[in-house]
Design brief:
Rossmann fold, Arc Repressor Mutant, subunit A, 5-stranded parallel beta sheet, alpha/beta, elongated, 8 helices, 2 domains
């Protein structure tokens, strides 16, 4: 089950948000301040955060900046939920590393929809690197070349994007819908079969090099990438 951490000092709002998210099949963890939130993040490794701006022992902005400095949590999606509705506040919140910004009072239906959208969204806090290494694979992010050891593997642009998504997120299970949104874009009207066909083609190209089994099929869920090739 997906874990959502709700960081809100107003108990009524915190409980209301937690209850609404729980009704949509999320497991929720409530925190009243920055200190509790940091501890809960370490203990529960949440899949998404809903963070208030004004907290008793600091600010949501400071918490998000702390989160983004930690490699382990750099890609965890964050929705900032606050009464601060000025454009400058929104810009500050997004610049601090929040993925989305929602002002109070808010619609709980919209809140749930935004959380679900964030969980479908690709990771955006990957460090900018020239090369990405995953097991025996090496991806040149500038030239879009792929190597297994020193042997080049010829991939199409789409195949490269698909492999890059997997290699950047080892051991993360991606649904077919998430893969479609990331590789083909949110406005692409394609079916799940598109993902299966491209994964099959990618595995076929990697098989002669003994690394096709790095892409695992998770029955009923989607696909997961393992840095081990067996």
């Amino acid at each position: 089950m997906t874990n959502i951490l709700v960081v809100e000092d107003d108990r009524d709002i915190r409980e209301m948000v937690c209850q609404s998210l729980a009704q949509n099949d999320f497991r929720t963890i409530g925190c009243a301040d920055v200190s509790q939130a940091r501890q809960s993040i370490k203990e529960h490794n949440p899949d998404c955060l809903v963070v208030d701006w004004m907290l008793p022992d600091g600010s949501g902005v400071e918490l998000i900046r702390w989160l983004r400095r930690k490699k382990k949590y750099r890609q965890t999606p964050v929705l900032m939920l606050t009464a601060r509705a000025q454009e400058s506040d929104m810009i500050t919140g997004l610049d601090s590393g929040a993925d989305d910004y929602l002002t109070k009072p808010m619609s709980l239906r919209e809140l749930n929809a935004r959380v679900k959208a964030l969980l479908r969204r690709p990771a955006v806090y990957q460090e900018e690197l020239d090369q990405l290494e995953a097991g025996r694979l090496r991806l040149n992010l500038q030239t879009h070349e792929v190597f297994v050891g020193e042997v080049s593997v010829n991939l199409t642009k789409t195949e490269f994007k698909l492999l890059k998504l997997f290699a950047e997120n080892p051991n993360k299970v991606f649904s077919r819908e998430q893969i479609l949104d990331t590789v083909w874009g949110l406005n692409a009207y394609l079916g799940d079969r598109t993902v299966d066909v491209h994964v099959l083609r990618l595995r076929k190209l990697l098989k002669p090099h003994g690394v096709d089994q790095m892409i695992k099929t998770i029955r009923g869920c989607g696909y997961r990438f393992s840095q081990k090739s067996s």
